[in-house]
Amino acid sequence: MSEMLLQTKGLTKQYGHQKAVDHVDVHIRKGAIYGFIGRNGAGKTTFLKMISGLAAATNGEIEMFGYKGKDLQKIRSRVGCLIESPGLYGNMDAYENLKIKCTLFGIKEKNYIEEILKTVGLSDVGNKKTKHYSLGMKQRLGIGLALVGEPDLLVLDEPINGLDPQGIAEVRDTIQKLRDERSMTIIISSHILEELSKIATDYGIIHKGMLLQELTREELMNRCSERIEVNLDQPEQAVPVLDSMGFTKYQVADKEHIYIFERLGESAQLNMELARAGIPVKGISITSEELETYFLNLTGGGLNA
Ligand code: ATP
After folding, report:
1. Which of 21, 40, 67, 249 is the most exposed place for a label (fewest CB within 10 A)?
2. How far, in Å, is the centroid of ligand 1 from the Cα of 70?
3. Beta partners for 187?
């Protein structure tokens, strides 16, 4: 198992009677791009603020880089964040905005700002004041500001929200580059699973303050890819039959289902073999699920659930 960079145990934030974050246990591997997915109001921002030290937890524990409790103060500078709006000085250009943050951090290295501008794709914008930037440019500068001090963990709250497809692609490329070139661990939240599906390596799905599921990209893709779905009472009983038929890409999905991800044309034959082995099949179908449908089903169907 790969090394964990961040784990929470029972992390909870209560506002009055409402638990905005309710006993959340996440497990974030070093080097992951962790997609934190939830609808509006699910508790994403609150959770990310606690991770970044911007809000105190009501209960529970955060362990980061092997530190927890009061010791977390020691590693705060290893976490960079962009939460809510980037907080730019509108009358200054990108360079000047970054310069202010570098001064605060005591960074004087030559070319430091130029490197960041290059990483976030803003090298060519010249002296344009940030108040004239597109939303995508502002977000990328916001990411650039979070990079000052070279954090090992980058926390980005809905950086894609409200961007047009071109802006989405640019932010996505920037994030991918950070992981590949600077080997950062990145947590990125969104209310649209599909938007993160091209880059995230792991996912946490939060709903009404609770973490419903954590899964890897591979697990998610398996759940959503085209498959034969067999519905039966005791799926384990079918395993020897699948083995004898030479199936290898299958998975017992739950107490009533087996998913098979290969030889989709052989469902009738499979049905027959199972019947021959005395295993009653309640249903057999070929399905695939859109990522977004998967997410909506998990979080209760209709848009307003
Ligand atoms: P969004 O994408 O809409 O920001 P979110 O998933 O980030 O949603 P949060 O902003 O974390 O969700 O909010 C979770 C819940 O906690 C919401 O019901 C919100 O109204 C409540 N909440 C958040 N901050 C506060 C606060 N400072 N005081 C009271 N309630 C709050």
Report:
1. 40
2. 25
3. 34, 155
Q: Is 35 in the pocket of ligand 1 (CB under 6 A)?
A: no
Q: Pick the closest to residue 93 from 117, 118, 119, 120 (CA basis).
A: 117
Residues 6+ away with beta carbon under 8 Å from 73: none
pTM given for the model: 0.81
Give the whole-angstrom CA distance, residue 278 versus residue 220.
32
CA distance 35 to 167: 18
User: Among residues 145, 30, 167, which one has the least CA distance to residue 83?
Assistant: 145
CA angle 247, 250, 251 (to 5 degrees): 150
Q: List, for residues 249-260, the tens digit of each pLDDT value.
A: 999 988 999 999
Tally of CB atoms within 10 A around 236: 10
- Please tell me the predicted confidence (pLDDT) of residue 1: 54
CA 228 to chain centre: 28
**Residue 222, amino acid:** N
**Residue 106 corresponds to which tokens in the numbers above?**
């005591």
Please work out whether the CB of residue 44 comes within 6 Å of at least one atom of ligand 1.
yes
Residue ranges, the chain, pLDDT below 50:
302-305
> Is the C-beta atom of 15 inside 6 A of ligand 1?
yes
CB-CB contact of 171 with 143 (8 Å) = yes
Tokens at residue 233, please?
Answer: 């009472």
Q: What share of the chain is helix, strand, coil (3-state, %, to 5)?
A: 40, 25, 35
For ligand 1, the distance from its centroid to the CA atom of residue 248, given in whole angstroms, is 45
Question: What's the CA gap between 212 and 205, in Å, rounded?
Answer: 6
